[in-house]
Every structure is written in C-alpha cells, then in structure tokens.
Amino acid sequence: MKGYMRLNSEELTTEIVRTADAKLAGDIVALDMRELVTYTDYLVICTARNDRQAEAIADEVHIRMKREHSLLPANPDRSDSIGWRVLDYLDCVFHVFTEDARGKYDLEDLWHEAPRLELEISPAEEADQESVPAV
Description:
By secondary structure, the protein is an alpha+beta fold. It has one domain: Beta Polymerase, domain 2, CATH 3.30.460.10. About 35% of the residues lie in helices and about 20% in strands. A four-stranded mixed beta sheet has the order 1-2-4-3. Helix 1 (about 10-20) crosses helix 2. The longest helix has 19 residues, at about 50-70. The chain is globular, with a radius of gyration of 14 Å. The model is unreliable at about 125-135 (pLDDT under 50).
C-alpha cells in the first residue's frame, strides 16, 4: 500500500496502465491530451476479450485506486453499455472496450493528433501486480 499519496497525472496514468495490464487488458494505449483539451490530461484505452473481462478490468482499477490512493472516479459509469466501461479520474479517463466496441468508437482515430505515452511494464512490475480482492 502506498499510504494514500497524491499522484500526479502521469503517475496516475501509469498506475492505471499497470493495473489493466495485470488483468490481461490488450492493446493498451495512453494518449497525452494536455495540449488538446482542458478536461483531462490523459486518456487510457484498452481492449478486453469480452464484457465480463471488461468489467473485471474496470473493477480492478476502481478497487486499486480506491485502496491504494483513496481515489474514486468523478462520474462512475453506471450504464449498461455493452462493450464499454469508463472510469473518469479527472486527470486520467480510463476506457475499457471489447474489440467490437473499440472499433466502433475508434477513440484513437478521433484523437489521432494526441501523442502516445511510452509506458513500459517490466516483468518485475508485472509479477508485483496481485489481484486485489473486492471490498
């Protein structure tokens, strides 16, 4: 546990990416939105194999951010959106799509001018990512 330290927007984005990766999210992309919009610094987009995995990835991010950093999403996604989950942490908006939904909404194309963050996850970091039990 990190003692509820305040994360800057890039650290928050990195934490979200690592957590999603640990839950086997695919094709994770982090877009730097700071020069393009005022409502967030980063968008993180990833793909889940199905709705169940999308929910599991979003739940894991939600639980970790709450437990380790005392962060809750500003506008929890309470919709029954099939294929798309959103967690808005203000500095970083996290999107989990199924493959079909990701192709349909194509956020990377919409924000094609946004630079991509180079976020690497080392094997040691992956080994440290244990699933957090639900509260």
